[in-house]
Design a protein that fits this description.
- The protein is of the alpha+beta class.
- It has a domain at 8-49 and 104-181 and 271-348: FAD/NAD(P)-binding domain, CATH 3.50.50.60.
- It is 37% helix and 28% strand.
- The chain has helices at residues 15-26, 39-44, 53-61, 66-71, 92-96, 105-118, 238-247, 251-256, 300-321, 325-352, 360-375, 377-388; strands at residues 8-11, 31-34, 50-51, 73-75, 77-82, 86-91, 100-102, 122-124, 128-133, 141-146, 149-154, 157-160, 178-193, 202-205, 211-217, 220-227, 262-276, 279-280, 283-285, 291-292.
- The strands form 4 sheets. The protein has an 8-stranded mixed beta sheet, sandwiched between helices. The protein has a 6-stranded mixed beta sheet with strand order 8-2-1-12-19-18, with helices on one face. The protein has a 3-stranded antiparallel beta sheet with strand order 3-7-4.
- Helix 1 (15-26) packs parallel to helix 9 (300-321).
- The longest helix has 28 residues, at 325-352.
- It is globular, with a radius of gyration of 21 Å.
- The relative contact order is 0.17.
- The site of P-hydroxybenzoic acid has 10 residues, from strand 15.
């Protein structure tokens, strides 16, 4: 066993882990990233597409703005359609003076790898059997296998950025960890197609189920339809997908949707999940390792970015000024923002989806709430503020 050491061992090389290593590098703090998958696999995952203005600002300050500013698309807000007629626009620009940017997580992940390569960062792909150890001691470590060898990495702190299925959360004792969870009885079937998208991100509430029209660039569209958890991809040839999608939009929008062959198709289950606290000793959780939101509010990636922003600030303050104040408040501060986004995503999911066994009464109640939103400036301001993302503390 060899025993190299670093200041911060980062488990997981997704957006949270790689952004943290970038921010720490800017502050002159050393880190090693341990990622269980290959780079090709990580880059092949099609996920988020919406960045809040606060996230864009963090990424720019991290030196990751160049391509995002060139290829990302700013939007004033997003549309919601229902009952085949109304059209309500969540106007973030009008109500809070903030825009959001559509920029694929895949592109951001590429930018993060490119930045890591430029600074010769230590990012170990295909690190197996990763295990955080002695996290409540003054000198924790991470053990793992890499290139066929067992290794141990000594460190001052461990950042658990290894997603919902990662190992980091599991080392927190049951007596310490409190988990809040809601599993939804449906998923999103998503496709990517090389066709021009609708001009606006457009959410649809429909008695057949929820739908979403989104985008990656002027010739790459991302669409989703709500499906039951029993559905299998094989049963959804492209023609069926397009027909179902169009059936959930008002006629005029359905006609405007340009169809074409899908280049990716996958089903994602929906879940709300929060693990408290986000710190145990010298182990800090960030991103999906600590919380999951249903994608309806477009918050998951944005929360990963805000967690990492708080964590990098806390570690910087520790190494630069010897202060533990931010480290000690990390969990509570991050959780305030997390719970705000978790509640908003849960509310929007409830408003826009068709739940099994839902009655006509409940469908009408949803439509009535949407009618109210379309009429009330006060309600619109509240939704716009939350959709745009609350400010960082
Ligand atoms: P990730 O991206 O899951 O990365 C975790 C990394 O850790 C690795 N790993 C391990 N490494 C070492 N040892 C282990 N034992 C490990 N176990 C796991 C994994 O291989 C992986 O590389 O978590 P991170 O970095 O916290 O980032 C979170 C975001 O990826 C996630 O929240 C978003 O994608 C959620 N999301 C959206 N978020 C938004 O903000 N806006 C959106 O529009 C949006 N749309 C979405 C989404 C997620 C979706 N899916 C498929 C879940 C749309 C969809 C369909
Ligand atoms: C996406 O483009 O993938 C996307 C956009 C908005 C959401 C969820 C996903 O709420």
């Amino acid at each position: 066993m060899s025993t190299p050491s670093t200041q911060v061992a980062i488990i997981g090389g997704g957006p949270a882990g790689l952004l943290l290593s970038q921010l720490l590098h800017q502050a002159g703090i050393e880190s090693v990233v341990l990622e269980s998958r290959s780079r090709a696999y990580v880059l092949g995952r099609i996920r988020a597409g919406v960045l809040e203005q606060g996230s864009v600002e963090v990424l720019r300050a991290a030196g990751l703005g160049e391509r995002m500013d060139r290829e990302g698309h700013p939007h004033d807000g997003a549309a919601i359609v229902w009952a085949g007629r109304h059209n309500y626009f969540i106007d973030c620009w009008k109500y809070v003076g903030k825009r959001f940017t559509t920029y694929g997580q895949t592109n951001l992940q590429e930018d993060l790898f490119a930045a890591a390569d430029r600074r010769n960062a230590q990012v170990l792909d295909e690190a197996l059997e990763v295990m955080p150890m002695d996290v409540t001691s003054a000198r924790p470590c991470v053990t793992f296998r890499h290139a066929g060898r067992s290794q141990r990495l000594d460190c001052d702190f461990i950042a658990g950025c290894d997603g919902y299925h990662g190992v980091s959360r599991s080392v927190m004792p049951a007596a310490v960890l409190k988990v809040f969870e809601k599993v939804y009885p449906f998923g999103w079937l998503g496709i990517l197609s090389e066709t021009p998208p609708l001009p606006n991100l457009t959410y649809a509430n429909h008695p057949r189920g929820f739908a979403l029209a989104s985008m990656r660039n002027p010739m790459l569209s991302r669409y989703y339809v709500q499906v039951s958890l029993e559905e299998r991809i094989e049963d959804w040839p492209d023609e069926r997908f397009w027909e179902e999608l169009k059936a959930r939009y008002p006629e005029e929008l359905a006609r405007a949707i340009v169809t074409g062959p899908s280049i990716e198709k996958s089903i994602a289950p929906l879940r709300s999940f929060v693990a408290e606290p986000m710190r145990h000793g010298r182990l800090f959780l960030a991103g999906d390792a600590a919380h999951i939101v249903p994608p309806t509010g477009a918050k998951g990636l944005n929360l990963a970015i805000s967690d990492v922003y708080y964590l990098a600030r806390a570690l910087t303050s520790y190494y630069r000024d010897g202060s533990s104040t931010y480290l000690d408040s990390y969990s509570a501060m991050a959780l305030r923002r997390v719970w705000g986004a978790v509640r908003f995503s849960w509310w929007l999911t409830g408003l826009l989806h068709r739940f099994p066994g839902m009655s006509d009464f409940e469908q009408r109640a949803q439509e009535c709430e949407l009618d109210y939103l379309a009429r009330s400036q006060h309600a619109q301001a509240s939704v716009a503020e939350q959709y745009a993302g609350m400010p960082f503390e």
